[in-house]
Amino acid sequence: MTDRPRALLFDVFGTVVDWRGSIAAEIDLMTAARGWGVSGHDFALAWRNLYQPAMARIRDGGRGFVKLDVLHRENLEQVLKDFGIDDMTGAEKAELNRVWHRLDPWPDAVGGLNRLKSRFILATCSNGNISLMVNMARRAGLPWDVILGAEVARAYKPQREAYLNSAAALDLEPGECCMVAAHNDDLAAAQSFGLKTAYVERRSEFDAGGTEPRPATGDWDWIAADFRDLADQLDC
């Protein structure tokens, strides 16, 4: 059996919270009120699809580090243009951008995290910035011990600094930390830098209907159906 880690580092968007459903619901309410005729699901997906390209410029050295709120706001301008939405004020755009601060957790997330917290340090290892993670946690009741990840490391996953600086901030070796994620590529990067890995299946992260499984494709230390299952496997 794999030795247990001392800390669990969590991907957040898609692993802990439902970005797709949360944003779609908010956009659907807005489009009903304003008569936009826009699908909330399509809007959410278009916004998210600009996420990786925006970070890629920073990873590649084409732009200095800026926090994710800035990238989301820039990407929002593009999505609004693409959907032909031109009736929002600057203040309204700023408030919509903060939808990323108020994403809803998956049903098992809060209970499962509290069980895991009984035995492990719980930390974010997300590309989300500190204020975003704090606001999300306070609203949703996510029991993090500490907010780590991109803004602390000044690097976006899957850059090595995002993982190793998070471990170092806890005065832990990489092997004393376990990356928990619903994304195989995130886990592959973490594993390559010496972290333990736990895959959690989130079907609705990849398919709005939750009908398409995304199997674990790596030799991960733990594979779980959800956080409750992970807590069972880790004797919490």
UniProtKB/TrEMBL annotation:
Pfam families given in the database record: Hydrolase
GO molecular function list: (S)-2-haloacid dehalogenase activity
Catalytic activity: an (S)-2-haloacid + H2O = a (2R)-2-hydroxycarboxylate + a halide anion + H(+)
UniProt keyword annotations, A-Z: Hydrolase
Superkingdom of the organism of origin: Bacteria
EC number, as in UniProt: 3.8.1.2
CDD domains hit by this protein: HAD_L2-DEX
NCBIfam families attached to this UniProt entry: HAD-SF-IA-v2 (TIGR01493), HAD_type_II (TIGR01428)
UniProt function note: Catalyzes the hydrolytic dehalogenation of small (S)-2-haloalkanoic acids to yield the corresponding (R)-2-hydroxyalkanoic acids.
Entry's family note: Belongs to the HAD-like hydrolase superfamily. S-2-haloalkanoic acid dehalogenase family.
Record protein name field: (S)-2-haloacid dehalogenase
Organism: Minwuia thermotolerans
Organism classification: Bacteria, Pseudomonadati, Pseudomonadota, Alphaproteobacteria, Minwuiales
